[in-house]
Amino acid sequence: MYGQELQSAQKAAVKKFAKHQGLIFFYKGKSKLEQTEAQIVANFAKEYHMPILGVSMDGILFDSIPSKVNKNQAANLGIISFPALLLYDNETNSAQPVAYGFATIDQIEANIFAIRKDFTDLESVEV
User: Fold this and answer.
1) Is 7 among the domain residues?
2) DSSP state, 89?
3) 50, 17 contact by CB (below 8 A)
């Protein structure tokens, strides 16, 4: 797949998996980069109707993402670099990293597509 066809497949796959997936976004609220990334992640979650939970590492909460203060969630998931975006599977109660650091919506789509294609038959994804 190339260009537009790949992007269409990525969007279709993300829409399909969004029904059973959620996002967890670990961040430091004082960071300007992470404030910008929070808005990108919030827009992505809104576009795909995905639930999202923000986890603040420094106690600063964002209005754009439902958030709570970290209480060992990062350590329990092995998160040591921020910002960190994880894909949470409601059916298996497991999480997989999607992105560390700054990521655009296109990069988040591509990463979720790559993660999910390893575990799911993409032949059933309609483009």
Assistant:
1) no
2) E
3) no
pLDDT given for residue 84 in this prediction: 98
Number of domains in the chain: 1
Domain of residue 89 covers: 21-120
Within a domain: 16: no
Residues 6 or more apart whose Cβ sits within 8 Å of residue 28: 34, 56, 57, 58, 60, 82, 83
Name which residue leads in pLDDT, 70 or 115.
70
What pLDDT score does 1 carry?
Answer: 54
Checking DSSP bridges between strand 52-56 and strand 67-69, what pairing results, if any? Answer: parallel
Q: Residue 94 domain-assigned? A: yes
Rounded to 5 degrees, φ, ψ at 73 are: -60, -45
